[in-house]
Amino acid sequence: MPLNETEVVKEVEGRLRADLGMLMPWLASLDAISRTTATDPAVAREMRDAGLQGLTDLTRDQMDGGALAKRHGPAIARYFLRVIEHEDHGRDHLGLPPRTPAAAPQPGPATDGAVLALLQAIAAKQAETEAQLSALAGQTKAAKHDGPLFSAAAESYIAKLAKTHSEGYEEIRYLRHRKAIFLKLCEDKPVAAYTRADLQHFVDEVRYLPPNISKQKGYDIKQIGEYIAAAKQAGAPGLAANTLQDTYLSRIRTILRDGCADAGIPFPLQDVSVRMPHDAPKARRRLALDNEKLANVFRMGVESGSMAEAMMPLLGYLTGRRIGLLTYLRREDIHRHHGAWLITPRQAVLKDGRWQVVPLKTEESLTAFVLHNFLDDIGFIDWARAAPGFVFESLHAAGDPADTASKRMGRHFRKAGVDPQYFAMFHGLRHAKINRDRELKIAPRASRLQVGHELRGVHESYGEVGMNATETMSIAQAELSPDLDLSMFRGIDFDALGAFRPKTGRPQKQA
Question: Domain range spanning residue 371?
């Protein structure tokens, strides 16, 4: 099994210490030879030969991992160094009579040869150790170079999202679908092993999928290749360029980037661009709803008897807030500030004993926003503040309230005659609100805070965290368009709207 970096470092340190331990007695032997007390040159030569031979045998035993060398190596080395340096100790080891005065010993060829042979042995052992360490380092690098497989990285990233948000988090469903398609079109490889060509191939193939194919009856992810082949043959336009970029390629990149981060390796495709097909359909610029269509949406919503259909479009138009946030509004979060009614969104809500994260798109979505005085005039504020709970309680009977709200609003707008080919649907209310603010010349900072957009520059962030008194009242008292019919909201029974529960199940399509 390949070693990790920590294990390699410990292995290197241990081996270097062992090799130095074997080398140190030989370095000390040179000093011992120069300081020998032997006076007889012949005896001095025998002492050196005996001591060096003993150190040689010790070193070989250490190289072989002998038990004696492991237990008593330092003591044995000291013994043979004394044999070389001290004549009395050397004579005792050699079994010679006590010393007599003699000339200082001179190095001999036998000793020089023994030292050279031992140093060569140590050098060979050192080279062998370095080769082994290099191989271990190579194994470690190869093991972690490319990171986990894409399939494993995808599941790891999805698990993180589920832990941070919940298993019902809508993004998880999209990620699983994109992961499955990518694996059908591209080989399952380590995350850092993919190249620009792999991502380009993915885009060039997936572009032929019909829009919203996963929602069609009988859709089978296993038949992706067949769907693409049929679309190529039919010359179908396929997915739009922004869909390819924002909902397919971006999610694949996110998984790859997260897998590389977990493995502690660079993401090689960080700055690599992928070409979008030049003939892929471009996003159509849809129009914001005009007053006539807004009135149709409002009137049919009130006639439906449902709180969601009746009041969610009106709140979307008057506040400019996104549908996911509006879905989770709590009635008890409405409060008075600067002479107007405000509502402060929550990041998480407690539902059925469990906390659910509100699907907020940006951090700015958490800023408080103003409820127009019209909502107070028609009695909506009084009704909402009378009891705690979700404003749109009926939506929370579903597993994914925000997704349910989006689908319900889509059906409602189409029934009201809003053609999605030409007009933005619920999100168009956000555009309509911003358009109206511009017509009334409401301060841009106030408008951005109201709809939950990021402020421009540091200067706009100074002062009050939210709107000041003037900005708050400019939103609360903003003139409503005289050409927009809002009479259907007068005299509404909000208790009846709140008690309404729509029939469950998917609505039947009209012939």
Answer: 291-499
CATH of the domain at 419: 1.10.443
Cβ neighbours for 73, distance < 8 A, ≥ 6 positions apart: 21, 58, 62
Report the number of distinct structural domains present in the chain: 3
The token pair at 392 is 């749109």
- Is the overall model pTM greater than 0.85, yes or no? no
CA distances from 208 to 178, 230, 283, 285 (A): 14, 9, 16, 22
361 C-beta neighbours (distance < 10 Å), count: 10
pLDDT of residue 133: 57
Query: Is the distance from CB of 426 to CB of 406 less than 8 angstroms?
Result: yes
Question: pLDDT band at 23, cuts 50/70/90?
Answer: low
CB 308 within 8 A of CB 392: yes
Instruction: Give the position of tokens 């039947």.
Output: 508
pLDDT at 511: 37
SS (H, E, C) 320-359: CCCHHHHHCCEHHHEEEECCEEEECCCCEEEECCEEEECC
One domain, residues 425 and 315: yes
Three-state DSSP string of 392-456: CHHHHHCCCHHHHHHHHHHHHHHHCCCCCCCECCCHHHHHHHHHHHHHCCCCHHHHHHHHCCCCC
